Fold this protein.
Amino acid sequence: QACQLFYRSDPLKIVRGQGQYMFDEEGARYLDCINNVAHVGHCHPEVVAAGSLQMATISTNNRFLHDELVHCARTLTSKMPEPLSVCFFVNSGSEANDLALRLARNFTKRHDVITLDHAYHGHLQSVMEVSPYKFNQPGGEKKPDYVHVAPCPDTYGGKFTDKMFPDADMAALYARPVEEICQRQMAKGAGVAAFIAESLQSCGGQILPPAGYFRAVYEAVRSAGGVCIADEVQVGFGRVGSHYWAFETQGVVPDIVSVAKPMGNGHPVGAVVTTPEIAQAFHATGVAYFNTYGGNPVSCAIANAVMRVIETEGLQQNALVLGEYLLRECERLKQDFECIGDVRGAGLFVGIELVRDRAERSPDKQGAHWVVNRMKQLHRVLVSSDGPNDNVIKLKPPMCFSRDNADEFLLAFRECLSVLMQERLPSASAAVSAVATTSGVIATAAETLANKAKLFERQDRLIKSV
């Protein structure tokens, strides 16, 4: 009962996946718009073949030499800016962030960590402590005194908004609380060990920090003796389209980077990439780092295949082009539907914030849940909601997502919003136009289903051809 489940009131039993589609036990096909784990597509044949071949050859712990590990480390570090050139392999994002904190604290000889409100960095004790998304929930453990929480840089619905401060430097406004934490710590003679942040917050509601935010924060943290950790577990490996890593969109170079989820396309594998200086300080402790399965031959073979597919199939460019299209079309939807308060994103990482009142920016949690369920039940399109008010529709599909897939989502989403807004018309107005409304909704639904049928037919042909 403590475990989280999508669509808890009417859960899906998924038995098969292919590309950007998942299939339930009855053979019904669903368009997957939420599974950033299957980064290059469910059951990608090259990834499956690489894992199967290596598993049939040997799978053992990482205290033996093997080419897949070396090749994986070289490829991963080649994607990073200097001086990020040393890899530690792990099995998950939680392990990666746990090790990142350990590296930071060892290097700085300090313990205090600055994190962002609504952040989520994993399920281990050490990273739960720096995850307000978890410890602020009812029943969550109390935040330790050595963890300091700064506001999430959400310029639409956060502590400082572009509505409150229309002419302000939003990056400077949001960086100031971090600077103040650093100043207080320095005044106490304590300093900070690290600042950890997702390059783009996902659980926090698909948040894109204002330009210049990380640059200002990194400067403040480093002046207080701390190091900067970029959590790329959700958004790395080309998802943002314009860059391979989301932190690059801010023009900064972290001291430590954690990666995981998309790295294995569903297989448990992750890594921490850092500088030789930080790695050497860790080595100098004399406490050897060992992870039984981190960097095993099968995991590295799969990660190598994932990175090859991203390159050979041009998936980063696909994310850029399709992301621009999705954002443009969602902005058009915003013009038609007052319930859309904000549209934001980068590449195939998109958030659509639903509101009850656009002027007041009042979150519409109920409407978001209704849309998520209708998308699944009527249109067989899987989306999710998140954010501090659970009113942000999240899109982070497999990177093989196509223009037809985007159109299918947009068509289904438009129908859902049309019905949602129709149900909110004043009762008197609804009574007067009941007949016209009913016929209009039926016509809209019929047109939607007819268009979806054409999409399904075309996509079925594509699947069969594969």
